[in-house]
Write a structure and sequence with these properties.
The complex is a heterodimer of chains A (about 325) and B (about 300). Chain A is an alpha/beta fold. Chain A has helices at about 55-60, 80-85, 105-115, 120-130, 150-160, 180-195, 205-210, 230-235, 250-255, 275-290, 305-310, and strands spanning about 15-25, 30-40, 40-45, 70-75, 90, 165-170, 200-205, 215-220, 225-230, 240-245, 265, 270, 295-300. Helix content of chain A is about 35%, strand content about 25%. In chain A, a hairpin with a 5-residue loop joins strand 1 and strand 2. Chain B has about 300 residues and is an all-alpha fold. Chain B has a domain at about 25-210. The chains are: A alpha/beta (about 325), B mainly alpha (about 300).
């Protein structure tokens, strides 16, 4: 990288967009006046399906022309220097993208060469990358016989094989069971911290990405909703959602008296899960008031909630938000 | 990686190593994709099953050439006449070449389409033009190599059965005529097969469509021929009937290559397409260009 732009906060900027707008020929506006600056680290890009995440990724990779605005990735303009950007970026698509009748080692080697690595280096880096994502002897088997979790790992390995400066991961936990999700998230966290590669993780599940991200960018309908360091974004991560058949107001007052922040959401109440005692406090309060408890769930913030909060919060003003 | 100097059985995770070696960029990636494509067409680096078909066809072609050249040296030479010509050899075995194309082209492109692999290519330095061009070049090269084998057998067999160097040189000139026909056939057949395969995701469908498209032209040719010969009363065709007959071979990729070969290399006045040689060449180039353009357009559209 010869050119490095810096953000006002001083750190190098990996991705910078300025008033980025993308209108498709059919009139759909996928991105509207999006201004962002992404600094190194693990960044969560969250938004509901259709929010413009995939469009943004394609523009960052130089695969889609923009309608208006300016884009810089790794100090380069993807529209004119697309192939230079793509040589230094690793991309893991959301959809299935693996040929079933090749062995993972062979496929990842081929992809390394497609990224410009010489033959021997490609072979070495491919087995390294597969080892890093946790595939060992299996890598000589055909991909068609792999489980979803293993396929996701191969997709990650091919994005990682050429040692990119930036990884773009589109819904990396798609189709994984809870254990697989945890493993994938842990892996992404390792890549961002131990490997020193910056990662942009796209997801529609805020609860998932906020566990591993340094900062979050929330977009909705192609517009920037919020972009901030994670600690400024959500004071609480998980919430306890519970419902009582009667006496909701009494319980709310009681819990507020215990110093908990209770929010009412329809018939149910929400309390941020600050510590393990929160459970006991709620159960204690319910028992003392002798109320019939219907349900008690630990829930993650979902994008919808963030959006609801974000839309009402003044902090959502999207001009020049820096992450 | 384990280190022998420490306790046996301990695996040392040396951690993530950044890559500091060369990054060879777009041109290298395109060349690698081309080389990979040529290997794929012959099933190299793949399972034994994938090698069976291309090498079966190659073996068959070499065997045919070996038989021809043996018969030539035993019987033909004695009788003082040729029983094969280099330039028409590719057209004599054109069905086998078509089968090779129909299997190799889907192998090269349909697999990536069906597997959704294209986004992985296009998120790398390669562009949407580099990919189809590399694949098409790979197929043309593979088909040419397929034809080069038997042509070499014909040439070497003939060269060793003549005695003086002048005859060897004559043989070589004829051999290059075979290479030219082979090149035209490789370019035409590959362009069509590549376009058809880039539209079909399933390999079997792509193969069937390719063969079907070629075979379909045969009855059309038949109809045109029967028109030309509708008032046939023996002897040579003349006038319009002759022209229709000479032009009708344009409709089939099989006969168009044969026509060009005969125009370029048949003894004077013996070309079966009469004065229409330039037209045949022009149509061939136009078909190749059209197929290439449509293939490139196709890859501009493939998003996924």
């Amino acid at each position: 990288m010869t050119q490095t732009e810096t953000s006002p906060s001083g750190g190098p900027t990996l991705i910078a967009t300025e008033a980025l707008t993308k209108r498709y020929p059919n009139g759909v506006v996928a991105l509207a006046d999006l201004t962002l600056a992404v600094t190194p680290g693990i960044v969560g890009l969250v938004g509901a399906n259709g929010a413009g995440k995939s469009t943004l990724i394609k523009i960052l990779l130089g695969l889609l022309p923009t309608t208006a605005g300016r884009t810089r990735v790794l100090g380069l303009d993807p529209a004119s220097d697309g192939h230079k950007v793509r040589a230094r970026v690793g991309y893991m698509p959301e959809n299935d993208c693996l040929p079933p009748d090749l062995a993972a080692s062979e496929f990842v080697t081929h992809m390394a060469r497609m990224s410009g690595l010489p033959k021997t280096a490609a072979r070495e880096r491919a087995s390294e990358a597969l080892r890093h994502v946790g595939l060992y002897e299996e890598r000589y088997r055909q991909i068609g016989g792999y489980s979803t979790g293993m396929k996701q790992r191969v997709k990650l390995a091919q994005a990682l094989v050429h040692d990119p400066d930036l990884l773009l991961l589109d819904e990396p936990t798609n189709g994984l069971d809870p254990a697989g999700r945890d493993a994938m998230l842990t892996l992404i966290q390792r890549i961002g911290t131990e490997f020193g590669i910056s990662v942009v993780v796209c997801s529609h599940l805020l609860g998932e990405v906020e566990r591993i991200c340094d900062s979050l960018i929330a977009i909705d309908g192609g517009r920037l909703l919020r972009a901030d360091r994670i600690e400024n974004m959500t004071s609480s991560r998980d919430v306890l959602v519970f419902e009582v058949a009667e006496g909701t107001d009494e319980l709310e007052a009681r819990l507020a008296g215990l110093g908990l922040t209770v929010t009412k959401d329809g018939p149910s109440l929400q309390v941020p899960l600050a510590a393990a005692e929160t459970y006991d406090q709620i159960l204690g309060a319910v028992a003392e008031l002798d109320l019939p408890l219907h349900s008690l769930d630990q829930r993650r913030h979902r994008v919808a909630e963030l959006f609801a909060n974000g839309a009402s919060a003044p902090a959502s003003a999207p001009e020049g938000a820096h992450v | 990686m384990s280190s022998p100097t420490t306790t046996a059985g301990v695996i040392h995770d040396i951690g993530y190593q950044r890559y500091t070696g060369p990054r060879l960029g777009r041109g290298y990636a395109t060349r690698s994709l081309f080389a990979h494509g040529v290997r794929t067409a012959f099933g190299l680096g793949r399972s034994a099953g994938a090698k069976f078909f291309p090498w079966g066809i190659f073996g068959l072609l070499v065997a045919i050439a070996a038989i021809l050249v043996t018969v030539q040296s035993q019987i033909g030479a004695a009788a003082g006449e040729r029983i094969f010509t280099y330039y028409s050899f590719p057209t004599q075995i054109n069905v086998l070449v078509l089968l090779f194309c129909a299997v190799a082209a889907p192998e090269l492109v349909s697999r990536d389409l069906r597997g959704g692999v294209l986004p992985l290519y296009f998120s790398r330095p390669l562009t949407r033009l580099d990919y189809p061009l590399a694949k098409l070049a790979a197929l043309i090269t593979a088909v040419f190599l397929l034809l080069l084998g038997p042509l070499l057998v014909l040439f070497l067999g003939s060269a060793f059965s003549v005695t003086d160097m002048a005859a060897v040189w004559d043989e070589f000139v004829l051999f290059t005529q075979g290479l030219i026909t082979a090149g035209i056939m490789a370019a035409l057949f590959s362009s069509i097969a590549m376009l058809v395969s880039s539209l079909a995701g399933r390999r079997a469908v792509a193969a069937a469509l390719t063969v079907g498209l070629f075979i379909l032209t045969t009855p059309v040719l038949g109809v045109l021929q029967s028109i030309a010969y509708s008032n046939y009363d023996g002897g040579e065709l003349t006038g319009n009937a002759q022209r229709v007959a000479q032009i009708s071979f344009l409709v089939s990729p099989f006969t168009i290559v044969e026509g060009i070969g005969s125009w370029l290399f048949a003894p004077d006045g013996q070309s079966f397409i009469g004065p229409f040689g330039p037209l045949y060449l022009g149509v061939t180039l136009a078909v190749i260009a059209l197929c290439l353009m449509l293939t490139l357009l196709r890859y501009r559209k493939v998003a996924r």
